[in-house]
Sequence to fold (412 residues):
Amino acid sequence: MKASVGDLALFGGVPEFATPLHVGQLNLPPFEDFEASFRDIFRRRFFTNHGPLVRTLDERLARRLGVRHAICVANGTVALMVACAALDLRDEVIVPAFTFPATVQALSWAGLTAVFCDVDPYAQTITAELVEPLITERTSAVLGVHLWGRACDPDRLLDLCRRYDLKLLFDAAHAIDCTFGGRLVGGFGDLEVFSFHATKILGSAEGGALTTNDDELAARIRTARNFHGAETFAEVALRINGKMSEAQAAMGLLALDHLDEWGARNRELYHRHQQRAGSLSGVSFLDHAGAERSNYQYCVIGLDAALDLSRDELRQILEAEGIHARRYFFPGMHRTPPYGDMSADPDRPLPVTDRLCALTLQLPLGSGMDTRQVNRIWEVIEFCLGHGRDVRRALDSARQGNRPARPLTATS
Fold:
């Protein structure tokens, strides 16, 4: 419990957490299960080229998500690149600027031009109403992002894309086991792309998958993801070594066995964060789950611009306390090289994206945490915001060289 500004670690006090808390999930199965699975891989001596574990993961994911096809690949970025090739996209693709760099850079690797769209201030995702004014004769597709697991307006976007004869795909990296209108993410649009990075609730160390209900499209995806002649299902212009390995699939299958358990733990921590945020002035909690099913992987708050402390100042203090909060997706892809810089673009303002990039903060919620730690996180936040002017004076003094303060790291 912090009793004075001097108790804050940034100003020489003892950090609240000796072992830092991170945003990433880092879920691991029991080691004995991991060991048994990898012993089987060594026994079979079948490490890659679409082995039995990869095929099993494809099948189990398809059943879990209620889709005809789930096709695993090396990672989520490769999945997006394969998606662009399999859909034969051309010219421009409309995409949110409020997203992870991989979403947009996959388009660049595919030789496509990203057209940045602003997002809804509440859902923090693109909508059909925001997308339509950006459609031109050069537009070939819309790439939506199911941010924080909240589905990205799939029905209205589908109606819009069918009206303009555009392809529709979704970056569902955050959204495994999440629903929209009671339907699991995975079967919306032409295809959807998942990430199984180690920091996701369902992780295969590295990995990803594409899901679709289109048989012909699935055949092109299966061909495009590899150079293996025996795995040619349809003719495509480009192929890539994007296969998932047996080691990745082993981790993915083990994670799938524990997905419900890990989701339940996330839900408990998420609701405790939500309860604590609800009583604090100047803090808003993004309830990205609502009435839908969610994996509760992310805890995102917004800070009022009128608070005595800025979002970045609060994050600097939290980091020194061992609370490694993240400022997703600062500064926005429209301001990130090679797509832009920190100066404003008067011809295409994205005011909601800019505001979210300046005011949102993602708090730790994941493996190894319990509700007591969530309470301690909020005790630090409450102290800082309740003594904002005193903390700001201490920060100003430290900037002038009068007192030591730990700098904010470059990691966002």
